[in-house]
Write a structure and sequence with these properties.
The complex is a heterodimer.
Chain A (H helix, E strand, L loop, with lengths): L4 E10 L2 E11 L4 E5 L6 H8 L7 E6 L2 E2 L5 H6 L2 E3 L12 H10 L16 H13 L15 H14 L4 E5 L7 H14 L4 E5 L3 H7 L2 E6 L2 E6 L1 H6 L1 H15 L1
Parallel strand pairs in A: 3-8, 3-9, 6-7, 7-8
Antiparallel strand pairs in A: 1-2, 1-4, 4-5, 9-10
Helix pairs in contact in A: 3-4, 3-5, 5-6
Chain B lengths: L17 H21 L3 H26 L8 H21 L8 H20 L4 H21 L1 H4 L5 E2 L16 H24 L1 H11 L1 H5 L5 H27 L1 E2 L6 H14 L6 H19 L3 H15 L3 H7 L2 H6 L6 H30 L6 E4 L2 E4 L4 H25 L1
Helix pairs in contact in B: 1-7, 2-7, 2-10, 2-11, 2-12, 3-4, 3-10, 4-10, 7-8, 7-10, 8-10, 11-12, 11-14, 12-14, 16-17
The chains are: A alpha/beta, B mainly alpha.
């Protein structure tokens, strides 16, 4: 079976600095995969390479076996890959309802039409309400998204990310800056909405990573030093040395 | 005209609210039909005609600024070019006696401007923000310069004039009278406003808001931000062209002043004054501005100064514009305690108005002293005749201004609560 996401010999150079130094990674469909690593290891850059935000210097990214080279973010999105961002990235002046409805439009086949009225489709409205229900924001539907609390905005962003029905979901630090209870809430939400989907996430909170991921990749200075199930990663001496020891100590 | 805010769009299924959403349009149609019966003077009809044209133009501009997040400094180009094209069509009709109704002329204007917008938009909508603004400014300057050079199309400094009465009579109406033209413009105002409103409800219209708020995120929803901007831009160009055609019909002449940067700046001012956040904002802006322009300019030569001051005050104190100011009262109205606001309003607004009048008086006196003919020391202000070269009126004006603004400043916090 073709993997959902396959990276081969990925390199990225900004000027003379090489941020990503040869990453090979294969993520199976339905897998929950976490990428961890110290600050500045290139995790977010790797995300941006996969999603077409930056072009790679060399190497290939394949989504379900299709090469993504030279594709714009919106084209990659249409092929079934969706992402969230490290900083909250919603549409602040639009209502929560509108945020989700816009996220549904393309996958519902509306494209660039200016002859359909979006308000006229009961199906679109019910799909939107369904999604709002899933992310527990039904009561907030009419508010401008910009006034929501931080955790609610993050939940909304996850809603926006999954709305298009993409089967590969990439989340960039979904619990960054959250309290414990908020983190638990978001983790439950992620587990719920990514069932039967491929999840790739960057995360700093080791509790979240070890609770959620099927496999973990450790990225250090632009290279993956280990890819394994959580227990093996925890036991790996190389990982201990490079990153995890310090991170786990910080946790406790 | 419409009380439907842009943001809290139908959460409830639209078909259940068919009456509520069409009510503002019915009211608008009735108002437009009744207005010429109320104001029968030719001068009033002229003002109304201009007002409606400005409404279409401002709404089309808001497709860019309010809905698409594109700040254009050259939108008058699309109005002017559409208008010039219509003047040529008008002259062609006159020369060849073509059997065309005057009513369809705006379609020609719209399509011609649409054509120009598809060309300019193809490179100007690549990025929003500063890049777009600068390109629009450049194109605006370019076309304004061309209008003085390419005399075949733009007629040089005297512009292009024509005669609308050579069109095929529409059930006997030959458009000799101002109020005959009124109904034609009213028809196109309703049609254009309705189409622009419906555009904002389509997938592209909705995504225009998304792209305005966050272009990068929108790309990750499967939409190319550039294409979404492009469609909005073309739509805005089309409706600006319709406004231009109506200018051609109403004034029967177009000159360089109809497409220069001054005109572009004016429409930006009108749209912002009315409020970009709501669909009906530009309509309010157009009405207020046209009234100021036509009524205030009869009273004082300094009217542009006051409009400028109003604009600055709006930007500083009410960034949502007049529409935003109105909609701020919606929660209070829903709770039914609008009455609570009356006392603080009286306490703040009356002193503010008095202060503003004091300032205006000062300005007028200054203007009189500097610009009146030598020896002419008498001036009339607020129905009082006095000598502008004596000290007393100055003291009174300054005192009124200071007390007024001071009282307003002191009472303003209570209003905010």
């Amino acid at each position: 079976m073709t993997p959902a996401l396959q990276l081969d010999g990925l390199h990225k150079r900004f000027g003379k600095t090489e941020i990503i130094r040869g990453v090979d990674l294969s993520i199976a469909a339905g897998e929950r995969h976490a990428i961890i690593g110290p600050n500045g290891a290139g995790k977010s850059t790797l995300f941006n390479l996969i999603t077409g935000r930056f072009p790679c210097t060399s190497g290939t990214v394949r989504l379900h076996g299709h090469d993504l080279a030279g594709k714009a973010p919106y084209q990659i999105n249409r092929m079934g890959l969706s992402r969230s961002f490290q900083i909250t990235n919603i549409f602040p002046r639009m209502s929560v309802f509108e945020n989700i409805r816009c996220s549904l439009l393309w996958s519902q086949g509306y494209k660039y039409s200016f002859w359909n009225m979006v308000g006229r489709s009961p199906e679109l409205t019910s799909k939107t309400m369904e999604l709002l229900e899933q992310i527990n924001l039904t009561s907030r539907a009419e508010l401008p998204a910009g006034v929501l609390s931080y955790a609610e905005q993050r939940a909304l962003e996850i809603g926006i990310t999954i709305a298009g029905g993409a089967d590969v979901i990439m989340l960039d630090e979904p619990t960054a800056g959250m309290s414990h209870s908020e983190t638990d809430y978001i983790v439950d939400l992620i587990r719920k909405v990514t069932q039967d989907k491929t999840l790739v996430m960057v995360e700093h909170d080791m509790g979240v990573v070890f609770g959620l991921a099927d496999r973990i990749s450790v990225l250090v200075y632009g290279e993956i030093i280990a890819t394994a199930p959580p227990e093996e990663v925890r036991a790996n001496p190389k990982v201990q040395e490079a990153y995890l020891g310090a991170a786990l100590q910080a946790e406790h | 005209m419409t009380g439907i805010p842009d943001s809290s769009s139908a959460v409830s299924p639209a078909n259940g609210n068919a009456l509520r959403s069409s009510l503002p349009w019915i009211v608008a149609v009735v108002v437009l039909l009744v207005l010429p019966q109320v104001f029968q003077a030719n001068s009033a009809i002229t003002i109304l005609n201009q007002m409606m044209i400005t409404i279409i133009f401002a709404l089309s501009y808001n497709m860019l600024l309010g809905q698409g997040g594109m700040l254009s400094f050259g939108h008058a180009v699309y109005m002017g070019v559409g208008g010039f094209f219509c003047m040529h069509v008008m002259n062609l009709v006159e020369a060849n006696e073509l059997p065309i109704w005057l009513h369809v002329l705006p379609i020609f204007g719209g399509l011609f401007s649409l054509g120009l917008a598809t060309i300019v938009g193809s490179f100007s909508t690549r990025k929003a923000g500063t890049v777009f603004a600068m390109i629009s400014l450049g194109i605006g300057e370019l076309v304004a310069a061309c209008s003085l050079i390419i005399i075949v199309f733009f007629g040089g400094e005297e512009g292009i004039s024509g005669d609308r009465t050579y069109f095929k009579p529409f059930f006997g109406v030959k458009f000799l009278q101002q109020n005959e033209v009124y109904y034609l413009i009213a028809f196109w105002t309703i049609v254009s406003a309705l189409l622009m409103y419906l555009f904002s409800r389509t997938p592209v219209g909705r995504m225009a808001n998304a792209v305005r708020d966050n272009p990068e995120r929108a790309e990750f929803l499967g939409y190319s931000a550039r294409w979404v901007r492009y469609f909005s831009f073309c739509g805005a160009g089309f409706f600006a062209g319709i406004a231009g055609a109506l200018v051609a019909i109403n004034f029967e002449i177009l000159t360089e002043t109809d497409l220069n940067l001054g005109k572009s700046g004016m429409i930006l001012l009108i749209t912002f004054l009315g409020g970009t956040g709501f669909f009906f904002g530009p309509i309010i802006g157009a009405i207020v501005f046209t009234l100021l322009q036509s009524v205030l300019s009869l009273q004082t030569e300094l009217w542009q100064l006051y409009v400028g001051a109003l604009f600055v005050a709006t930007v500083m104190f009410f960034p949502g514009g007049l529409a935003g100011l109105l909609m701020m009262h919606q929660p209070a109205m829903r709770l039914g305690n609008l009455g609570l606001l009356v006392v603080p309003y009286v306490n703040t607004l009356i002193p503010a108005a008095i202060g503003a009048l004091g300032l205006a008086g000062l300005m007028e006196m200054l203007f009189h002293v500097r610009h009146a003919a030598v020896g002419d020391i008498e001036m009339r202000l607020f129905w009082i005749t006095f000598d502008s070269h004596t000290i007393l009126p100055w003291v009174i004006a300054i005192a009124t201004m200071i007390t007024g603004f001071w009282l307003a400043y002191r009472n303003a916090p209570k209003l905010r609560e």
